[in-house]
């Protein structure tokens, strides 16, 4: 709402500039309010087209997040809103594009009906009554505008939640049409259709030009008709002298020359050239950085259709909570997908890994390429057979909100299903050593529908639990596992994971009671709340984080949604 208000204010200020500007007097007489609306909406579009690319500069955001110059936690949390900011700018572009198109449709009609024979350079039409459709489809600004509207329509409709969930490929391919959109935008503004007056001092708008009046009413002798063919042959008027009212009237100024008009320099180039170049440079850097394929060391099939891929790459460094983008040419020549790191490289081991759930066409193809038999998902099965894995390219790592989980003294981490992956890297890091981090107490809540899903990271949780008990810090981590559906409860995790059996609860968490207990045990402290799961859970946690409590405890909400 604040962003929309800012854009409305920007629109209104630009509207007044064109409405009151003397340099647009004659153009305003021709087009009316269509001029002001089209230019004001164009300014808002320039502003948002400039900013919409910045949240997509992932390397820049990762550098800022890890930089010591951004020491404030609040500032780093603003970087977590990059996706939301990108979507907000996109929605603003759609809204004001509709307004811009409507204004130019009116302008095309006015250019045709209000053709000005006195100022020919001001006209976009070639003659009075010209078909306005020619201005839309037979000119560079008009044709590029029509194509941009179609591209923007495809990008917007394919970005809806229903299409993203049902067919992510459509969203991915249409969203990459943004490059075509920006190229057309640069051509669109180069037409110079709307012009402004440059000689306001010599020709104030609405002034009286006696020289023009004399030329229009002067009779030229026949002997000079060939010399002055442009003069008319109307009868010479009796009142040849300049009428007194035009000379003596204080409100009528006499101009010395005809008005001169000039097209604006394309301001859009100033707005988008910088962010577009920055984005292109980053994409080139990312291409060079990810040009060498990684070495896949092992592939592990987990229950509930989850696959784990472990790999190594030279000079690869990452922080807990970050994510990478995987590209497998054999699965898809163009598609790339982000996955959170569940294992980060350390000083002692270079291996890093990801877990992903097979839920779409790309993950199915990728799974089939990695596994010898696509039905090997019933048990944990390392595959060490001599076989050639497909080439896999890794781009990243990139920053995420979960990097901050180790920077709070107390953190509450809530995971829903496969949303546990960001916290797996945090748990792996704590297993290697927790003393060098700010974190002193971790509340880990994991909600799953079936009991087998807990097997994904059951070994990790048990190892961390045993390590903390050996170091006499059993209160360092509080593990609560919730099974939302009781089907198959007889297949309890078993003796191997006895430490987790006592922490397994049936049903869903009572979030209000949970927050009150945490606040009571951590009075007057700031607790980081991190959530990766369904929107329903994240909304509840967000609301509870913003509510007050009687213990002086402050909750700071951080969220990443995979929906």
UniProtKB/TrEMBL annotation:
Job description of the protein: NADPH oxidase that catalyzes predominantly the reduction of oxygen to H2O2. Can also catalyze to a smaller extent, the reduction of oxygen to superoxide. May function as an oxygen sensor regulating the KCNK3/TASK-1 potassium channel and HIF1A activity. May regulate insulin signaling cascade. May play a role in apoptosis, bone resorption and lipolysaccharide-mediated activation of NFKB. May produce superoxide in the nucleus and play a role in regulating gene expression upon cell stimulation.
Residues passing through the membrane, by range: 44-64, 85-106, 135-158, 170-189
Keyword Oxidoreductase in annotation: yes
EC class of the enzyme, as a word: oxidoreductase
Pfam assignment, any one: Ferric_reduct
Domain FAD-binding FR-type: 289-404
GO biological process, one term: superoxide anion generation
Coiled-coil stretches: none
MF-aspect GO terms: NAD(P)H oxidase H2O2-forming activity; superoxide-generating NAD(P)H oxidase activity
Keyword terms, alphabetized: Cell junction, Cell membrane, Cytoplasm, Disulfide bond, Endoplasmic reticulum, Glycoprotein, Membrane, NADP, Nucleus, Oxidoreductase, Transmembrane, Transmembrane helix
Cell location: Cell junction, Focal adhesion; Cell membrane; Cytoplasm; Endoplasmic reticulum membrane
Gene3D superfamilies per the UniProt record, alphabetical: Nucleotide-binding domain of ferredoxin-NADP reductase (FNR) module, Translation factors
GO CC, any one term: NADPH oxidase complex
Taxonomic superkingdom: Eukaryota
Catalytic activity: NADPH + O2 + H(+) = H2O2 + NADP(+); NADPH + 2 O2 = 2 superoxide + NADP(+) + H(+)
Cited PROSITE patterns: FAD_FR (PS51384)
Gene encoding the protein: Nox4
Documented EC number(s): 1.6.3.1
Name of the protein in its database record: NADPH oxidase 4
UniProt membrane topology term: Multi-pass membrane protein
Lineage, opening ranks: Eukaryota, Metazoa, Chordata, Craniata, Vertebrata
